[in-house]
């Protein structure tokens, strides 16, 4: 039976199975309703609170419109239906609701069962650089909300039924779970284990191309990632390329190494006359012509270096620059590795296209690389004759073409390329996002119509 009360008075209702059959509890305008819990509260019971305009009126709103609250202070609306979830109420808790207008009566209501996760997220064992994907498809009464966790800690922004990790790294390994919440409560999935093994590293880079004068000399760049110094060997070749039936070769190559400030560190013209000739000879990578150049250098991590290849007498021709990570080749342990390699030079047609070669170490799993073919964007850096329309292709050791691209935005993984932060600076340039097994590969760069220009090949190892 409905009763009116003075605004200053309060109504107390005890949650629990004993509420069934009790008289209606009523609060008038401006009054406060307190709901006190006790230990007899059924674990799946819910208290429905209906607000009336008039005495003896029917509840306003359908059950699908009821709101579920957790423990806190709540302001009840003047009209409509709200529910207070007794499953979140602890003994001695006080739940307060302030009524703006109308009258209030209470009655118990059953909760639906919590969400069911019939298939938990699947565990995965991946190599660094691959993509991890965890997903669930809950059953039961929705709508559902999701929160993913790694090792028990919530993952910011991971609030969908699937959690995707592109370019996964060893630091992201762990146990992944998802918390699925619905009107009937919350369910936590079984844990999926993510194991991430290191990818194989780059141990060798080489580039063959036209070596002219001025801004058209061949320039190689590289960056070492990690925290430890490493020993690298650089070679500059020309005459020995005759062994591969090439003509028009650079007759007397000179190598010059520069630091990130453009300061010259070292140079060499004839490798046997250098201070490290014995060590270079012992490495097994010494040139087989005395007129070719080498440099043995200790490289600091996280600093860009450049190498210029030119001819001692300013003569022109086809030349070859090579870089070897001697420490990694020799099996020296450490966390430093080659993470960025680039070649810039003159690109023409036929045998005068730009060719870069690289070797992925046999230690480790497949390596994920972003390879760029540049031209038009170099105009912003003062290059007068950039390659107009670069075309990029990757070939394996059996001379089989693995992939090809002309316009990077046409690549099927263009969005992923952009997400790496290393997308080309011009839509006319080329890019490939590719996963390669250990072995030797070559990259070719040419113009779509064999027009000449300054081009650039860049390799980025992805984590």
Work out the helix count. 3
Give the CA-CA distance, first to last residue.
Answer: 70 Å
User: Tally of extended strands?
Assistant: 32
Architecture (CATH level 2) name of the largest domain: Sandwich
**How many structural domains are formed by the residues?**
3
Map the helices and strands.
Elements: E1 10-14, E2 32-36, E3 45-52, E4 67-69, E5 74-76, E6 81-85, E7 94-99, E8 103-110, E9 124-127, E10 132-135, E11 145-150, E12 153-154, E13 162-165, E14 174-182, E15 185-188, E16 192-197, E17 202-211, E18 218-225, E19 230-237, E20 253-258, E21 264-268, H1 277-283, E22 293-299, E23 304-311, E24 317-325, H2 326-329, E25 337-347, E26 354-360, E27 367-374, E28 390-396, E29 401-405, H3 414-419, E30 430-436, E31 439-447, E32 453-461
What does this structure look like?
By secondary structure, this protein is mainly β. It folds into 3 domains: 10-110, no CATH class; 124-196, Immunoglobulin-like (Sandwich), CATH 2.60.40.10; 202-461, Jelly Rolls (Sandwich), CATH 2.60.120. It is built from 3 helices and 32 strands. The protein has helices at residues 277-283, 326-329, 414-419, and strands at residues 10-14, 32-36, 45-52, 67-69, 74-76, 81-85, 94-99, 103-110, 124-127, 132-135, 145-150, 153-154, 162-165, 174-182, 185-188, 192-197, 202-211, 218-225, 230-237, 253-258, 264-268, 293-299, 304-311, 317-325, 337-347, 354-360, 367-374, 390-396, 401-405, 430-436, 439-447, 453-461. The protein has a 16-stranded antiparallel β-sheet that branches. Strands 9, 11, 12, 14, 15 and 16 form a 6-stranded mixed β-sheet that branches. A 4-stranded mixed β-sheet has the order 1-2-7-5, with no helix packed on it. It is elongated and about 90 Å long. The model is unreliable at 1-109 (pLDDT under 50).
